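Table S5 (text form). Sequence records supplied for joint modeling of the two-component complex.
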Amino acid sequence: MTTYNATRIEEKWQKLWEEQDSYRSQRDSSKTKYYVLEMFPYPSGKLHMGHMRVYSIGDVLARYLRMRDYNVIHPMGWDAFGLPAENAAIENNVNPAEWTARNIEHMKKQQNRLGVSYDWHREVNTSAPDYYRWSQWLFLLMYKQGLAYKKQSNVNWCETCATVLANEQVEKGLCWRCSTVVENRDLEQWFLRITDYAQRLLNDLDQLPGWPERVKLMQQNWIGRSEGADIAFQLKDFPEEEIRTFTTRPDTLFGVTYMVLAPEHPLVKPLVEGTEREQEVMDFVARTRQESEIDRTSEEAPKIGLFTGRSAINPVNREEVPILVGNYVLMAYGTGAVMGVPAHDHRDFEFAKKYSLPIRVVIQPRDGQELSEETITEAYVDEGYMFNSGLFNGTDSREGIKKVTEYLEARDLGQFRGTYRIRDWLISRQRYWGAPIPIIYCDQCGTVPVPESDLPVELPLEVELSGNQVPSLAHYDDFVNTKCPECGGAATRETDTMDTFICSSWYFLRFTSPNCDYAPFDTDDAGYWMPVDQYIGGIEHAILHLLYARFFTKVLYDAGMLKVNEPFKRLLAQGMVYKDGAKMSKSKGNVVTPDEIVERFGADTGRLFILFASPPEKDLDWNDQGVEGCHRFLRRVYRLVAESTGEIGVEAGTAEKGEHEAELQRSLHGAIKKVSVDIEERFNFNTAISAIMELVNSIYAYRQAVEKDNCNREVLEETLEKMVILLAPFAPHLAEEAWEMLGREGSVHRQHWPAYDPDMLEVDQVEVVIQINGKVRGRITVPTDCPEDRLLEEARSSDRIGELLDGKEIVKIITVPNKLVNIVSR
RNA sequence: GCGGGCGUGGCGGAACUGGCAGACGCGCUGGACUUAGGAUCCAGUGGGAGCAUUCCCUUGGAGGUUCAAAUCCUCUCGCCCGCACCA
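The corresponding structure-token record, covering 826 residues in total, follows.
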């Protein structure tokens, strides 16, 4: 008898699947479609365990659902633009396109070696002109709709990457890619108006019950809506001007003792112009603007304010309050102006103390203590009743928010408003290896979009990259110099490329019609395949990619190109892969690669372990001995099939169906039920696999229990066959081989998923636990659905229970059918 | 500070709506087969007491609800993640 040789088996079947084009997907309106998608990778050059995990999860689903007769689409592609290609190109003196192509080729081989069932006819590469052509097209669509715009602003700059970053790409003040401290620069840059979609991006999270709660919360926090009011303060010396301020606490309006403007606020200059304070204030403004966001917004940073010499008028009580400029006020949030209510806001309190500004209590707590300017030691930010607030005195503060706003609204001095933390998406990148922004600047005509018919604006590939200069399109005169599409005169191209997150914001649509040459995607194809039914990927994209992709989908929905307005129906955020309690990294020397696992044990073993070790959404600790255990299990399966086919083929199989057979069938149908539920409803692949292990153990036990050569051929054969089918999504190569060994026709992956027979799960005898006062005191075996009185009788007749109940009064009896009897006695 | 999550054997992890805690796997112990085993097979394996039938304890900790709690409630400790001068 041969033993399990993973390499031989895996190579054999991978070759056959490729030859037979087994995983091609086509539209078929007679079947229910199912779109399984794993986040496509950046082609860094080699797969790591995180990749192996996400692909293993996706592939189990894809294979399972095919067997459940869904029309499954399971595509794969490459998020191929990005900085590492440029860096590698400089280091190795190769062209980024070549470097990327080589990596893709290698990684694709690795993926195939894992036995993942991709439809490679749908492969996309975001750096290919026939892809980025449509990324550019989508940019132009947004441009035409006013969603893409260019503006001068203070942006995040990463010196190491030599480019700007979107807010989402700054983590705790550091670059998300290289952890360099992000600086501030004033640059003219392209933005997408994602803030226009903030409310819908927030609201529609409710339509996503299949998303993890924590991801939805992260997005919710990121969008950061706050409710409040916009309030206008008139300027004392310029009665026609006003300062608009946003507050979440209009109920504290009577407590305003000063106003603070952001240094960038457009009114700062006119307020001080020509006054003695001009110099001082404008110097401060210039200094503050140079500070990095992290310095300026960190909690430790001192709050600095400067008096402008001007005053504003409180709309409710006509009081004059001084106007200051403060470093802690951000232009990008709300209106860039804050009303200072020191008694009821921590920051304002601190600020007022520092600059000896008056503090006025206007909310009193309900617990009886009375706050006053003299006694207050910290801001009181909780609810209470209004005080010192004219006609609102005594009003509940929560009520006051509404009443004060209504009062202002009636007088045209303010209105209800929600404001958002999220800011527009900065998409310009000062780098070479990206999709060029399709814009031309003409001295005569201004900013001119490249006509659709001229797309793609191709990236020049004949480039010289060197370590001395940052790779940028601005260095290539042939690229930069062009003709204006409108007047035909000399013009220059935009030299920034797009953020790569643009390319990944719509790739799942391109998969539905990867060769479409008249649009980014065919609306019928997208109509059939979209939405992605199950999306799988790392939690690190909870905000970035997932928010951007939702935004794009909504824009395309509004443009009438999509029928869905959410791209991903269900989302699985898979956990990370660790080893020895730490993230795998070269420096820690704890790296295990998919390649070495495939080589040593085979892809089936690696897949099985990675799915068995932990539920998919939890972090996983890699354990070499655990891998061996999974390999051992697959060997056991192989040996079982190999041995049993011998028995099946020869003289075995004469035995009648008896209790052993019934038990084996119970195991089988129990396993079918559990594996089906675990895959489909719970994504608990670890318990699905353990159910298959139990089934295999039962088959061994059966063979041991019956005399050799005296097993029931029919039952054993059926059990083996179904066991192999259950195993197929997890260990696709071994299952295929075993299927062949069992003498079955065709591919195991084309079989219908077995249904379990509830009758087979029935047992005629059950063990019932007898509890006395909630403690297990015995067990009895009785016929199924045994009535309570009979149960009691049986229980009492057992020596022990009888003894324990002797002389006791029975207070109560609780029966759980076929499970337990609890006798409460005294 | 705000928001969220997680604490179960030596380890990874099971336990659907409260109903036998510890499935499955790893590791460990003993045995079988072997020249040998780090191969394979069989048996055992939460802790403690006892020759034993058996008993007691055990899901981070303390209370509570209940006939019955890993599961529900209150408090508390520890770890992890996200956001954070957002007005």
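Note: Chain A is about 35% helix and 20% strand.
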